[in-house]
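Protein record
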Amino acid sequence: MGSFQLDDFAAGWIGGAASVIVGHPLDTVKTRLQAGVNYGNTLSCIRTVYRRESVFGFFKGMSFPLASIAVYNSVVFGVFSNTQRFLSQHHARESEARGSHSLSDLLLASMVAGVVSVGLGAPVDLIKIRLQMQTQPFQEGNLGLKPRTVALGVQPVYQGPVHCIATIVRTEGLAGMYRGVGAMLLRDVPGYCLYFIPYVFLNDWITPEACTGPSPCAVWLAGGLAGAISWGTATPMDVVKSRLQADGVYLNKYKGILDCISQSYRKEGLKVFFRGITVNTVRGFPMSAAMFLGYELSLQALRGDHTVTSP
């Protein structure tokens, strides 16, 4: 079997689309809690969004992630799977005595996937967060700072994903599309290590030795738990990333990662870095369960292998 396989990319695309549809409403709540003001706790935020914007408010900004995160996820899963397969084959040639999964191979493959994901995902995340945050009332978000532009009124800054991209490039340059990229690297490189590694080992642990592969139930459970672990531990840096990326809709408050951490800690204390941890962890389970289930089932269909679908 060759080391490079395209079907991992195709299956990742399907898994990514499934995860966006399942997870976007809670992602909107998470973003509002982390980067907005006057939302209180998770339930209060849900009630506020629903009261102000109806159920459609939870799906604000979903069209761009649905179109782009599927591609992004395709690359992440394709890079991880092919890197891990390449490393496994390389080590298998060096030594006959090795386990079914090498922790070092999984760690390196996860880190490579994390770095690649940031290059593709930073602009996607930025557009999503800007669209999610622009309905935050300007008077509430102002916090006594001078607005970047005048006479904004109640007109939304961005009319949609394409207009958002054009506006950011025009006002902030191409580098503006990568606002918060440093915080995203610090979130995603360790985040993907705590995503793929628990998934692989939980799958191995849940699946009986007699089975040729994991059942859909095992994939769903292992994927969901891996997502909850990864998103829960990534919350502090996710808060910083969200604030840096939301910064600039109406005004600019932060000079960089350290300035954002310093200002946030000084104004709101240590607890601010765990804002949204509940919704992050809860959202991580169904999103990742859908992601891995979509990926594994698609991979089986593409390869014509249905043996792992039996419990």
